[in-house]
Design a protein that fits this description.
Number of helices: 1
Distance between the termini: 44 Å
Shape: globular
Structural class: mainly beta
Strand order of the largest sheet: 1-4-5-6-7-8-9-10
Helix content: 10-25%
Radius of gyration: 16 Å
Largest sheet: 8 strands, mixed
Length: 129
């Protein structure tokens, strides 16, 4: 059983790494399952696997990678077709530096995360630009 789980995880990871396109999907076509913390296809109940461009409305689209329904990898949020924020997810939790932008593209703020929690200023080390 363990070998099958490892094989499925490996295949999902290979699929995400080799994917060249984004799968367009509307937010209404997905559902978040509280019990598992996974994002799934509403019709089938299958967890998302791959790179998705999730349209929240006509103004916002999130580009996120999923492995077995959990966000993993780089994420970007576009509002009014402009980059609004970007960062990384690790097992559905924000990780590392997240950058938030103003409408004109300037950096509004930077926040550093560890396991989904904001790192206090005293914990920050030098991060080169």
């Amino acid at each position: 059983m363990s070998r099958i789980v490892h094989l499925l995880f490996f295949l999902a990871l290979v699929n995400i790494c080799s994917a060249q396109t984004w799968i367009d999907i509307d937010l209404e076509e997905t559902e978040y399952v509280d019990a598992t913390d996974k994002t799934c296809i509403k019709k089938t109940g299958e967890p998302l696997n791959g790179r998705y461009a999730i349209k929240f409305n006509r103004y916002q689209t999130n580009y996120e990678s999923f492995i077995d329904g959990l966000k993993n990898g780089e994420a970007k949020v576009f509002r009014n077709r402009k980059l609004a924020e970007k960062g990384l997810y690790k097992n559905n939790l924000k990780e590392g530096e997240w950058i938030y932008y103003t409408e004109d593209g300037a950096i509004r703020k930077r926040i550093f995360f560890k396991n989904g929690k904001i790192k206090p200023i005293s914990d920050l080390r030098f991060f080169p630009d």
